[in-house]
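Give me C-alpha cells for this 158-residue protein.
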Amino acid sequence: MKLRSALALPTFLLATFLAGGIGSWATFENVRTWFPSLVKPSWNPPSWVFGPVWTSLYVMMSVAAWRVWRRLEGVAARRVALFYAGHLVLNALWSVLFFGLRSPGLALLEILLLWSVLAGFQRWFWREDRVAAVLWAPYLLWVTFATVLNASIWWLNR
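Here you go.
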C-alpha cells in the first residue's frame, strides 16, 4: 500500500469522528433535559444503542469512502474527499438542528437532504467498489430508520 493511501485512512477516520464530536457536543445537554420530555414512538431505541451504532457506522463509512478515494486519481479522488467532507457537515448539522436548536421539523427537512446524499453515495460506491458499497449500506439503512424516527417524533410533538 502506498504511503499516500496509508495516511489517508486515518484522515478519513479523524474527519468522521470530528464531525461526530460536533454532533455529540450539540446533543450532550439536550439529550438529558429536553429529549426525555418529548413524546416518542414505542419503537424508539434506548439511548445506549446510539453510541455503539454510530461508532461502528463511522468506521464503516470512513473505510468505504477511503476505499473509493484510493482507487481514483487527481480530480476524481479530490471529488470523493470533498463530497465526503460535505456530507459530514450534513451529518453533524442534523444534531445541531434536532438537539441544539430543539427543532425536529427543521431536522426532518435536513435529514431528507442527508438521506438523498447518502443514497447518491451508495450508487456511486456500488459502481466504483462493491465492498465500499456494502460498508456504506448500514449507514444508509440507519439514516433511513432515523428519518422515520425523526418524522414520528416531529409528528407526535407538533
